[in-house]
Structure formats: C-alpha cells, structure tokens
Design goal:
Elements (H helix, E strand, L loop, with lengths): L20 E5 L26 H12 L7 E5 L9 H10 L4 E3 L9 H9 L4 E5 L5 H8 L4 H14 L3 E8 L7 H10 L4 E6 L14 H14 L5 E5 L4 H11 L6 H14 L14 E2 L2 E5 L5 E2 L16 H7 L1 H7 L5 H5 L10 H8 L21
Parallel strand pairs: 1-2, 1-9, 2-3, 4-5, 5-6, 6-7, 8-9
Antiparallel strand pairs: 9-10
C-alpha cells in the first residue's frame, strides 16, 4: 500500500513486557482552565483519589515491571496540589523508580519548589508553551499572565540545573505560530520539545482541530525543526515517523502553503539545517510502550484513551499491561481500515486515542493521518 515498502514488523524496540513510561494522573485538581484540557481539571480534588498508601503501592507495582523499571510521569491536573507529593517522590526514588513531574505553570511553582523537585530526585519537569505571544498562550491556557509565568518557570528550572521539556499542543488557532514557539524555546536553550496533537476528549471536544493536510504540514515542519539541535517528539501523531521516512527517501515532498510559511520562517531565523533529524524511526503508542493510571486508579492504554482496563486498587498493572487483549492487538498492529493494511503500521500505527475518540474503537484507523483519510489522498 502507498509506496511499495514492506511492513517492518519487529524493527524497533519490543514493549510487550513493560512500557517505557507509566503516567499517573495524581489529581484532577488544577487552578488553570485550559481550553483543551484532557482531564477537564477543576480547582478542587475529586473524591476517590488514590491515597498516599495506594500511591505507594502503585509505585511498587511499577518497580515490579523489572530492572530498570519504567519511568513514572507524575501528572494531573497539577501534581503540586498533592500534599503528599514529596513523600511519593521520595518513595519512588528509594525503590529506584525514576520519575518526572508535569506541573501546571502556576504561582505554586516557585524557584524553591522547582529546586525541591530536583532535590527529591525528579529527572525532569515539563511545562507547556502553546503560543509565541502572551495573547495566544493566555487565551489557550485560560489564565491571564500564564505566558510570562511560564517563561519565568523555564528560566528558574534551568538555573536550578533541572532538565526541562517544553510541551506544545497544536491546534488550528496556533498552527501558524509553531515556528515562533520553536524560536523562543531554542533561544532559552531547551533540548526537548514535545508537540501534542489534539485529541477531542475532555474540554478538547470544543477546540478546532487540525485536518489531515494541516497535520501533514505540522509534521513536516517538526521534521525541519528537529534538524536544528533539538530533540522533537510528538504525542498522538505517530504518523510523523512516516513523514520522516518519506522525507529521508523522497526529499521535500510536501508543498502545502501552511507548511511552506512555517518552513520559510524557520529558515529566515535559523538558516538551512545541517544536523541529522531527531525524529525517532519507531516509538510508542497508547498501550505499546506507555500505560496510564487515572486519579482514582483506573488503568487506561493512554491518557487520551479513556477505555478502562481495570483498577490498580484491585488489579495488577504489570499483568494488565502484559495480558490485556486490546493492548496485545495494539502491539501486534491488528487494526481495521487503512491503518490495518498500511505499510507504515509498525513504524507508525496511528493514534489509538484519536481512533477511539472518533469511532469508539481503539483499533480503527486514525482520521488525522493523510493516508487514513481518503478525502486527502492524492494531494501529495
């Protein structure tokens, strides 16, 4: 299908025994009100949050995956709103479970709090920058002053010697600002940029999403950006690996106006790139390299795929990850529609979350991929 390449089964890491990352939504509480929030976070904790002792047991289960255990991502809501966060981090550190923290950019994230995360053993933190201007970022984040506060937090984390990753959620509103967002974080010395492609869950159901052509443009720009000395990763856009492979083999195949404008802005500011692209040829999918635990313990394939597989209060996350039939189907690429027959299904695999959000079936095709949407085929 598509270009005559054979599917590359087995080419890349095997995540059947354990994931690379375990995400724990430590709380739904958050003082921000972001337009696209997956969790539809609210100011106060919801009833039923995992207790401290239950959180410790979850950490023990993650350690039981084997040496080295997966990295835990302590996310939310805002994990800084959990009073027992220092105890949980200390316990993870004592068991040899590496962890990163994904806090909200609020006034709680002072320079002292950032230093405390480093001292507790956090490998890194991530913060979000969704616009190149305060008007765009504050609009998306739903809070005035969020843009300046985010830049202060980035500077404080760098000063504290803490690794920091910048996250950006791309949507119709801010697609045209991707190049300028990249220039801002490159100027700050950021080494890792993770770009989230919108999945219409939570408050994100009311946000204008990219169409497949715009997704293709964004991925081609990110491929360009990855050749300027920064690790670039995507979330819920595994088709960037198809784009990277196609660019390597065919060169600049994509000529859509929105891409050409982003590319032109990048070249004007950074010049022509000469470094090797940092897009990984094979990565994770929901349930294939990652697993997610909600605030009340429900196990999901990923944070944007709310299909319960059990609860850590009664189920073993190791057994669930290794033996659940749906996760086995994802890992074997037993998909329906175009994703099931695509030559890139092992390198890519399509967003399982977007497939689920659009059809209710996590094994259906990803409607954001150019190859999976017949409306856009032939526009290459």
């Amino acid at each position: 299908m598509h270009d005559g390449h054979k599917p590359q089964a087995g080419n890349g890491p095997d995540f059947s025994a354990k994931p690379v990352l375990v995400f724990w939504e430590t709380t739904r509480a958050c003082s921000l009100s972001c337009r696209h929030c997956r969790a539809s976070a609210i100011p106060e904790p919801l009833p039923g949050e995992l207790t401290t002792s239950e959180g410790r047991r979850l950490i023990e289960q993650v350690a039981a995956f084997g040496n080295p255990p997966p990295v835990m991502i302590l996310t939310g809501g805002d994990p800084m709103l959990r009073r027992d966060l220092p105890e949980l981090m200390q316990y993870a550190h004592s068991l040899g479970v590496r962890f990163a923290v994904s806090p909200a950019a609020t006034d709680r994230l002072t320079s002292g709090a950032i230093s405390g995360l480093k001292e507790a053993g956090a490998t890194s933190i991530s913060v979000s920058l969704d616009g190149s201007s305060k008007e765009m970022h504050d609009k998306i984040r739903g809070t005035e002053g969020a843009f300046e506060r985010t830049l202060r937090i980035i500077s404080s984390a760098i000063s504290a010697g803490l690794e920091i990753q910048v996250n950006t959620t791309v949507m119709k509103d801010n697609l045209s600002q991707l190049a300028d967002i990249f220039l801002i974080i490159k100027g700050l010395g950021i080494k890792v940029w993770e770009v989230f492609f919108l999945v219409r869950v939570g408050r994100g159901t009311g946000v204008a999403d990219l169409d497949p052509s715009e997704c293709e443009s964004a991925c081609n720009f990110l491929y360009d950006a990855s050749m300027h000395g920064m690790v670039v990763r995507t979330v819920e856009a595994p088709f960037i690996r198809r784009v990277a492979r196609t660019r390597k083999e065919k060169g600049d195949y994509w000529k859509a106006p929105e891409y050409l404008e982003l590319h032109s802005r990048l070249v004007a500011s950074c010049g022509q790139a000469h470094a090797a692209p940092t897009i990984s040829p094979r990565g994770t999918l929901d349930g294939d390299g990652i697993i997610f635990v909600s605030y009340e313990g429900t196990i999901y394939p990923g944070g944007f795929l709310p299909m319960g597989l059990g609860n850590v209060r009664s189920a073993d996350i190791v057994k669930t990850y290794r033996e659940d039939d749906t996760l086995k189907s994802i890992r074997s690429r037993s998909f329906e529609g175009p994703c099931g027959s695509c030559d890139f299904r092992y390198a890519c695999g399509g967003s399982r979350s977007r497939a689920y959000a659009s059809t209710g079936n996590p094994l259906s095709s990803d409607p954001a991929c150019l190859f999976g949407n017949t409306m856009y085929l032939g526009r290459e």
